[in-house]
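Subject: Re: docking follow-up (zinc ion)

Dear J.,

Thanks for your patience while I sorted out the input files. As discussed at Tuesday's group meeting, I've set up the holo structure prediction with zinc ion included as the bound ligand rather than trying to dock it afterwards. The sequence and the ligand SMILES I used are pasted below, so you can double-check that they match what you have on your end before we go further.
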Amino acid sequence: MRLAAWLITLYRRTLSGRIPNVRCSFAAEESCSAFGLRVAHSGRNVIGRIARRLRRCRDACLLGDGRSISWTPLHDRAPADIVDEMQRDGESDGAIARMLQTRRAVARYRGDHAAFTACAMALPGPARVCSLPLVVRRARRRLAVLVTLTLAAIALTFVEPWLGALAAALTAAALVSARTLRSRLHRFDLHRGKSGSIGIARPASARPTKYTIDATPQARPTTTPASTMPRHG
Ligand SMILES: [Zn+2]
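The structure tokens for the complex came back this morning:
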């Protein structure tokens, strides 16, 4: 997988850390590009492991509007399953602890005591939460740009027929973008009713000392601007 290693190295030398509003969820542990490079050099199931890592970059960040949070389907799974899969992919202990930090926030929000205690390996402190309104605004802006470019490409196809392929690719990108936004909004609506507000949901049987890590007001999940949406560093 020399090509993959070369492309990742090129990305790290030219774009990584220089793209505005971009931050990798695992930047403090092992960024996606660092992980990809390590995987590429290992030569073992490179594409699959990198693809799963890129999904995890988004999985590790919650969406929030100040009262409710939403999470990706990964956090509907048991913490042990998440750990198993990450270990099979050769993820570092730090990256696993980062993901469990997010899983623990979901467990607390849902009042799931078993899952909460199963996240003992999680990093201390609050999970990262991206602002839903800012994420939606950004997604809509991206969609508008894609639609505009698609229409321009279609118009220019009469002059340059090869632009038809570009128009098709842009259309596909716009459809994926729209579907992703719709799915995230749908999930947010589903999760909105799971808890009154962040920090309130606790299992009735839980001892308060179990929840001192992120149940205190100052340690609640903090909403970060979309300017730091998970991307691959
Ligand atoms: Zn990343």
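A couple of observations from a first look. The two ends are 20 Å apart (CA to CA). Confidence is low (pLDDT under 50) at residues 196-222.

Let me know if you'd like me to rerun anything.

Best regards,
T.
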